[in-house]
Amino acid sequence: SSRQEMKNKKQEPSICTICDPELNSGLEDTILESLPSIRRWPYDWGFVSLDARRDKFRSRGYPLPVLEDNGKRLRYSFEEEFSEDIWNKVTKRAASNMSRVVVALASFRGEARLFACTGVFIDCNRFTTRVLTSGNLIRSNDDESKVADNLKIEVHLPDKRHVPGMLQHYDLHYNVAVIIINKFRCTRTAIIDNKVKTGTHSEVLAIGRVYESGKLMAASGVVINKENELDCKDLRISTCQITKAGIGGPLIDSNANFIGMNFYGLEETPYTPRDTILKLLENFDAEG
Known about the structure:
Layout: H1 2-10, H2 15-19, H3 21-25, H4 27-30, E1 40-42, H5 50-60, E2 67-72, H6 92-101, E3 102-109, E4 112-124, E5 128-134, E6 152-156, E7 162-171, E8 176-182, E9 203-209, E10 216-224, E11 236-238, E12 250-252, E13 258-262, E14 269-273, H7 274-287
Parallel strand pairs: 1-2
Antiparallel strand pairs: 3-4, 3-6, 4-5, 5-8, 6-7, 7-8, 9-10, 9-12, 10-11, 11-14, 12-13, 13-14
């Protein structure tokens, strides 16, 4: 849009604005199936009152449609599942590991949701568990260079419970955040400190969990030797096709070894590789 073109001239895009079209074009454009100039009701919300539909849009952080149309659906939403979900074909080892370490998160201001995405357990002790996720979860919509004020974070655990989370560390340049869950000890964490090397054309899986339903999803692909759109040396590309629900989720190999953290692209999936994530975590822990 002309509005976004003017915005791009004023500032260099961040990782987030490239990998998340929501920040590129605005939610008004991303919820449409066909006509980007008209906002419509999604058909799959059933026969509910106009006020109920409006409340549902507001609570999920989406702009209100301007026309009633039962032939349209909500697109590029945080509830959209992977189009080629292969979770039922994932190896038993990978499925067992990921089902216990992958969570969904959402951030709220008051009762309105700001963002929803996927995260992964990275470590725990007797009293707390830490979750690695995307910095989009905490980023301000008014100023993308800052953390949103008065945030409330909720984590949808593998056992279906919803528990509060607390921001511990973040780096908005790399678009990474670490969330703490107090008084919770997970049974397993992601294998992030492995020495597995991933080369071009290595087969990988992108894992995501939908915040509202808790459904686990997987998309297959390969790592490709291609420059990402952001021209950032710290990002890599896989051919996995995910949705916004998979932002912040792990990219793994067939043995469930952590390869990187996924972002979102319309055609391919940029991800921050494991080595960069480990350096960030080391810096976070050194800062205390």
